[in-house]
Amino acid sequence: MTRHFLNDLDLSPEELGQVLNLAHWMRDHPYAVKALGGPQTAAVIFDKTSTRTRVSFSAGIAALGGNPLVINPGEAQLGHKESISDTARVLARQVSLIVWRTYAQTDLEEMAQYSRVPVINSLSDDYHPCQLLADLLTVRDHLGELRGKTLTYLGDAANNMANSYLLAGVNAGMDVRIAGPEGHLPSEEVIRAAEERAAITGGRVTVTTDAGAALEKAHVVATDTWVSMGQEQEEAQRREIFGRYQLNADAMAKAADDAVVLHCLPAYRGAEITSEVIDGPHSVVWDEAENRLHVQKALIAWLLVESERADEETVRTVRQAMSA
Ligand code: CP
Known about the structure:
Structural class: alpha/beta
Low-confidence stretches: none
Radius of gyration: 19 Å
Order of helices and strands: HEHEHEHEHEHEHEHEHHEHHH
Bound molecules: phosphoric acid mono(formamide)ester
Strand content: 5-15%
Number of strands: 9
Number of helices: 13
């Protein structure tokens, strides 16, 4: 069966641990796994702008022995001249992997439905699951354990990052607290999915408008832009709405003394996060950005192995590394 990675819960708790272990090992052995040797081509499609995702997938696919074919916004027939299902069937005959940054989650689901090669969500309006793999690896690097740690997210709590923090955090057994203003909180559907997974992992879900309560002794504090792609016209209004959820020194004073700060970047300094915090001693955002590369390489190798699309040597190396 072909495995895809469309949202954070597409990996079971055990599989999430395997991918993080593999990423840790592959970071120390950056060219040891040639899961895309040949070179095989991976299509990396962007309907939105990107720096980290573009570079980390391109560099990572090359390091796996493959050829990254980056398709920029507007360059393909996809979305205007050709249906998603037809595009999926054609790409799957020509490439070994499809990575897609787009708008609607349902479009990614359709791509996966018609693709016989793995499809990876590299950001949709609803989720950013590759970012969360990097975030969890970074937290594990700095705090040692994920299970039982408190992860607080402040700001636009209805966006893709808030959804992914909630789902990926509970998948790792964390106590996840999402804080944002009324009307900008996760949907009932996302909260329900998080609660169901938390019941399995021992994680916890809190959704609140009270930033102070959410921050109390938090081990991890995260935020994201208040103005996601497509919301640029609402910038002034949104700065007003989210102002009291800024990640600043006062907010950090409520968190645990050794708390780490995450931001997926790009950051709007002086808006959702102050320079004092992002450049301060709690910040691990540059490690987080680097880990996109390592964890996505691990994800690709893992998906190819689990989809029975990897050679014997890759299967052996990956299985040894992920159980380490
Ligand atoms: N964090 C992230 O996805 O960055 P880019 O939008 O630059 O890819």
